[in-house]
Amino acid sequence: MTKKINKILFTVIIMILLVSCKNTKQQLQEYVTAYNTSTAPSFRAENVSLTTARGYINDDKIELRFETNLEQNELNKTASRVSFPKLIKEMINKDQIPRQLIEEGVQFDVYFLADDNTVLDKEVLNGNSIKDFLK
Question: H or E element: which one contains 55?
């Protein structure tokens, strides 16, 4: 009788553990939702007017877009190549871009856009490139 109860309890505990563990795709989806509802509305950075996240579940990819009030020109492109990686590093350190997702294989395509939505700078965060941002 005790063995049956133990087996049932063990099975219930295993089921609870399996249900409570989230896979990478679920975490990706939750991150995008949380970013757009809580991080984006209160996000403040120099020249950034709007930020949004978009998830691509089948590709294990998240796209972060930072729209700025900067004009598309060489001076701003050059300046963004310096300031944008610093912003990304700060976001990683604050866990606004979670290392855990990157370590689980999610790629972040991060865009810094001019006022006309053309790309000033683009960075790709994955398991290899994140090391460069954390230096």
Answer: strand 48-56
pLDDT, tens digit, for every residue of 37-54?
Answer: 999 999 999 999 999 999
H runs (alpha helix) in 35-127: 40-42, 74-93, 99-103
Q: Can you give the residue ranges of every domain in the chain?
A: 22-133
CB atoms closer than 10 angstroms to residue 45: 15
Q: Which two tokens stand for residue 90?
A: 């700060």
Token digits of residue 66: 């930072």
Tokens in use for 19? 């249900």
Q: What is the pTM of this model?
A: 0.80
Please give the CATH topology (third level) of the domain spanning 22-133.
Answer: GMP Synthetase; Chain A, domain 3 (3.30.300)
The Cα angle at residue 56 between residues 16 and 67, in degrees rounded to 5 = 120
